[in-house]
Amino acid sequence: MTGTRRGFTLIELLVVIAIIAVLIGILLPAVQKVRAAATRTQCQNNLKQIALATHNYESALATLPPAVTVANNGEMYPYLGWLGWLLPYAEQGPLWQISVDAYAEQPNNPFSLPHLGIMTPVKVYSCPADARQSAAQLTYENRRVAVSGYLGVLGTDYRSVNGVLFKGSKVRFTDVTDGTSNTLLAGERPPSPDFWLGWWYASGTADGSGDTALGVRELNSGTVAYTSSCPPGPYAFVEGKLDQVCDALHFWSLHAGGAHFAFCDGSVRFLSYSADSIVPALATRAGGEVVTLPD
């Protein structure tokens, strides 16, 4: 006698589909949470490597790099950003040599060929939470530029320059009398949606503000036409959005709840937006403020 094979009824099939949907609904947030934690950790590690490179630079040259190099007569590397100066200390020796050769050939305009650095993404300078940073991006004037999510802390704002990394600066760690463990070195801020702010190689803004460095109570300098519609500031440490140009004028990140900051002692901490009130004190190198860092 031949047996009969019983298939699924419609109701049973719907039940199975419903169970699978529930399992996916349970697992998907968990997967997303794990992925977010991984990118956050990698972003933190990148900033740690940048901080260590900065320490090696200071040990070798007895000063921190300028946020952007002043274009004085006789300057070998005008407009070069601080992350550009760190290349040989961040295991990017070949790119540094390419940059040195490019400056020898074209010393006055690092924003076009033969300068390859302006369009070369560097993994350690890119936060994996923002996929835009992993590739060169097309911006105004048909420029293709490499961007970074890490900016130096120039202090309170571009006029005060009371931090450690600002235009033409030559700050030493011994100048940080507030204590290196209580003074910010660099922090997170994704590039502007038009990619005109956030170039790591060189800065085209007058003072580097918003491009290679940023103040924690930054003002809109008015030197960048693309932020002319933004309020004058000061800007606080608050959550931002990728499609808002004005959010390029303050520190923030794509991580939930806050952003990573490197301190002058080489440590990296995640500061929540609720720490905004103490960030100005942390940004000055010799303000004499007494600050208690949150746990």
From TrEMBL:
Residues 32-276 form the DUF1559 domain. It holds the Pfam family SBP_bac_10. InterPro entries: DUF1559, N_methyl_site, Pilin-like, Pre_pil_HX9DG_C. This is DUF1559 domain-containing protein. It comes from Frigoriglobus tundricola.
